[in-house]
Design goal:
Layout (H helix, E strand, L loop, with lengths): L2 H60 L6 H5 L6 H4 L1 H13 L4 H16 L3 H13 L4 H17 L3 H13 L3 H17 L3 H14 L4 H11 L9
Helix pairs in contact: 1-4, 1-5, 4-5, 5-6, 6-7, 7-8, 7-9, 8-9, 9-10, 10-11
Length: about 230
């Protein structure tokens, strides 16, 4: 075997070895990712069991003699930080142990929805925003920002609501665009910026003619005070 042949064999062996090593590393990475996903999902399931237990305790405490206690307890005002202390601890642990995972996003939404459902909108809003930062898709990010906006709207913090709905709109998700535009118009109206609300309703009618949103936009536009013109 001459020098050139030995060099060719050496290069071939090196390439084969690199491929084998690369395949092994890829398989290890996939295996590790699968293990982390399974651990995160297991942690989320365990946290949900804690949420259920604390919710049942809340229902018993608030409605001890009612057959529909659990139904009523779903939306009863309460101090979520106190009534769901263990649940929040478990869910927060997921965001620390499995950051930026799908399960971390779901854990944040679970916390935010607990605050939202129990009427603590001001506490729900920033957690929806936190969830948006790690949302796995543009659609979910837009939905999270919209939920943040709704939370601020429900506690009459209209400037923050407009900012959140605008961020949702800027995600460019057509499937939620009409709903978010309606929300923006509604908040502008609540903030007494009726001219901007009117323009937003006009935009909805122009972009979504013959839709249910357009019909609602026309109705709400007709209910606004007369347009003000600058002198």
């Amino acid at each position: 075997m001459n020098l050139t042949q030995r060099q060719a064999v050496g290069i071939s062996s090196f390439l084969i070895g690199s491929i084998i090593l690369g395949s092994g590393a890829f398989a290890y990475t996939r295996s590790r990712q699968a293990r982390l996903r399974a651990e995160a999902q297991s942690a989320l399931y365990a946290a949900e069991k804690v949420v259920t237990g604390e919710f049942q305790a809340l229902a018993t405490k608030k409605f001890p003699n009612s057959k529909d206690g659990m139904l009523h307890a779903s939306f009863v005002p309460c101090d979520v930080t106190v009534e769901y202390s263990q649940s929040i601890e478990k869910l927060r642990a997921i965001t620390k142990d499995f950051p930026r995972s799908v399960q971390a996003h779901e854990a944040l939404l679970r916390i935010a929805n607990l605050y939202f459902d129990h009427k603590q909108y001001e506490k729900a809003a920033p957690i929806f925003a936190e969830a948006a930062h790690i949302a796995p898709s543009a659609f979910e990010k837009a939905a999270d920002y919209a939920a943040e906006g709704t939370s601020y709207e429900n506690c009459a913090q209209y400037t923050q609501a407009i900012d959140a709905f605008t961020r949702s709109l800027h995600m460019g998700e057509g499937s939620v665009r009409a709903d978010v535009m309606m929300a923006l118009a509604r908040v502008y109206s609540a903030a007494k910026d009726n001219n901007t609300a009117r323009s937003m309703y006009d935009n909805i009618v122009a972009e979504f003619p013959d839709s249910d949103e357009a019909k609602m936009a026309n109705l709400r536009r007709s209910m606004l005070p007369p347009e003000l013109h600058n002198p």
